[in-house]
Amino acid sequence: VISSLVKSGVIKHLITTCEHCTDSEVMCNISATLHSIAYDKGDLSHVDHLVEAGVLTVISKLPQKWSKDDTVMVRLLGTLLTITSNREDICELIANSTEYGDIPLLLRGLLETASSDSVIVETIEVIS
To answer: 29, 26, 120, 39: which is closest to 82 by C-alpha?
Structure first.
């Protein structure tokens, strides 16, 4: 099912929608959907599809918009954690390149400015 969504462009559209979304409930639902795709039965090709569709770039930009909404931030960080779990290649790409945005700088910024324990905890989980 997910491969057909990728081929039809639905996943790319979903990721693009994140950039323009202004409703926190909708943003949480989109993030939960991306998380489910990344976690789908351990199929790592789904993570590759998300990365190719630009999910890391979008996630790196969204905290500027959603930093005051703890629920959205925790969801976004949870999605990032799922995408990077068990993927040394993606972790190295994030650490050594700004091709998908400066995610290490984003994480540092969250640790320095977050006022919510849940956002701080989720940020630490992503870092570790």
So the answer is: 39
